[in-house]
Amino acid sequence: MRPDQEGREALLYYLGGRDACAMSLTCCLGSKRSEITAVVEEETEMIAIPVEKVDEWLCRYSTWKQFVFQTYQKRFDNLLMTIDEVIFHKLDERLLVYLQKKVASCQCTVLTITHEEIAQELATSREVISRLLKQLEKNGQIQLSRNKITMLA
What we know:
Order of helices and strands: EEHHHHEHHEE
Low-confidence stretches: none
Number of strands: 5
Strand content: 5-15%
Number of helices: 6
Oligomer: single chain
Radius of gyration: 18 Å
């Protein structure tokens, strides 16, 4: 997540098994403090690599260099996809895709999440998300209950 000057946060990307945080790698290589925050949504095992090793290993190990560049490529692809979604898709479509990705990520059909949390991740207001979720419920795609969303379709 990345905060703005007003304290709102925008979702940048999700990490899954064997993923690395491209922003962390960039900060290590640039010797600067990260401006993003990672939020753990489920039990996680993390490997921390000393800052001085990140650059050293790029020169020493071709497999590490390949891993780092694949990580950057994956995040760049995510960025292009996000730009496409913002430019070419309406918020209701983006919300449905967001919910589908969350369900796929947790391998479940019930999401325990508030409208406010969704709004923060999609960089919009809670009221807009609530209205769009009601429309999805009316269309039979989801079922809403307190802090829970059940995917039906």
